[in-house]
Amino acid sequence: MAVLTYSSRGVSCRCQDRKIWSTGEHVNGAPKLGFLAWKIDKKNYIAIPLMSDGKEGPPLYLRELFQQFFGGIEIARNHARKPRKL
């Protein structure tokens, strides 16, 4: 599980005691970009990452994924309801 840590120096993320990134770090003189949170568009099933530089990352379009998932559940449910021959 990833854990976000907030301090006066910025935000850092650790996973299993290993530092993944920190907003205070620099790569080639520029601040290192990091993920902060998700902006959720419930109506359209879109998740947009909010980055440490204040910009939005590329959106994840999740409607088809949920349709496939719930379609699979319906198929399994119908299969379970069918009478079985002994």
Structure description:
- With 86 residues, this protein is α+β, with helices and mostly antiparallel strands.
- The protein has one domain.
- Helices cover 22% and strands 42% of the residues.
- The strands form three sheets. Strands 1-2-3 form a three-stranded antiparallel beta sheet, with no helix packed on it.
- The longest helix is centred in the C-terminal third of the chain and has 19 residues, at 63-81.
- It is elongated and about 70 Å long.
- It starts with a strand and ends in a 5-residue tail after the last helix.
Mean pLDDT: 75
Question: Tally the helices: what do you get?
Answer: 1
Shape: elongated
Strand order of the main beta sheet, please? Answer: 1-2-3
Rg, Å, rounded: 21 Å
Helix content: 10-25%
What oligomeric state do these chains adopt?
Answer: single chain
Span between N and C termini? 46 Å
Instruction: Tell me the major beta sheet.
Output: 3 strands, antiparallel
Number of strands: 8
Going by helix content, strand content and strand pairing, the class is: alpha+beta
Order of helices and strands: EEEEEEEEH
Overall tally of domains: 1
User: Which segments are poorly predicted (pLDDT under 50) over 5 or more consecutive residues?
Assistant: none
